[in-house]
Design a protein that fits this description.
two-stranded antiparallel ribbon; globular; mainly alpha
């Protein structure tokens, strides 16, 4: 973690509340987030980028901040854009969960809040599970990216986030019922964004093929050896 992450998060939170535009983020220097200090940048890491992008996914899903932090989609950085999408999906799912809990606790049917219905509680628990899974996957992939070779971790994270996006959006709309589809209610902003991010920079089939090919090439024992090697190298580096 970079020393300035708390400051970056505070700045991004303030911008999202007051001026959630690419111009404002550019003026604040977020376009230089991943550039080394020697090159005039912030010298931030992918953990910083993940934290900022998760905030954007939560508060302003229409804001294309990856274009500023990572670069344009035409530059060929598929893995970096895929990782950025995972972070965005993590934030959007968090907001979907929050909206769903708020609605379930305030909407009354048959004389009691929806949240008291066991079936609704089970759905909310599943949504919380999907949300947590994406958050963990994004953080793990960001850590791997800071160590260089992260194709496998990013592929796994994007595939997991894609699956969670579909399941999470469906659950959120089930909990909300008809109001979740109305223009005035904010849920559709997040579920539409999740649908877009799910197919962007590698859909389910693409990343399943990539991850499966990686695992098949190594074989059963080889896969486990490679996974432990990658994780041990990061633990050793962090300890030093």
């Amino acid at each position: 973690m970079s020393d300035m992450r708390a400051q970056l998060v505070e700045t991004a939170t303030s911008l999202l509340a007051s001026d959630a535009t690419l111009a404002a983020f550019d003026d604040a220097g977020f376009g230089q987030l991943l550039l080394p200090e020697a090159d005039g940048g912030f010298g931030g890491d992918w953990g910083d980028a993940e934290a900022i992008l998760r905030l954007v996914g939560y508060a302003a899903p229409a804001l294309d901040l990856p274009a500023l932090i990572v670069g344009t989609a035409e530059d060929g950085a598929l893995l970096d854009h895929a990782l950025a999408n995972v972070a965005l999906m993590g934030g959007a799912l968090e907001r979907c969960l929050e909206l769903s809990i708020e609605h379930a606790n305030t909407r009354v049917q048959f004389g009691k809040p929806l949240g008291k219905q066991q079936a609704v509680q089970q759905n909310l628990a599943l949504l919380a599970e999907e949300t947590a899974a994406v958050a963990v996957a994004a953080q793990a992939a960001a850590l791997a990216r800071d160590f260089g070779d992260a194709a496998f971790e990013i592929g796994c994270a994007k595939l997991r986030a894609n699956q969670a996006a579909g399941r999470g959006a469906a659950i959120a709309h089930q909990v909300h019922g008809a109001i979740g589809f109305t223009q005035e209610y904010p849920l559709h902003q997040y579920t539409r964004a999740l649908t877009h991010w799910r197919s962007a920079f590698g859909n389910d089939a693409y990343w399943a093929d990539q991850v499966g090919g990686f695992a098949a090439a190594l074989g059963g024992s080889g896969l486990w050896t490679e996974l432990t090697r990658r994780s041990d190298a990061r633990l050793t580096s962090n300890a030093s």
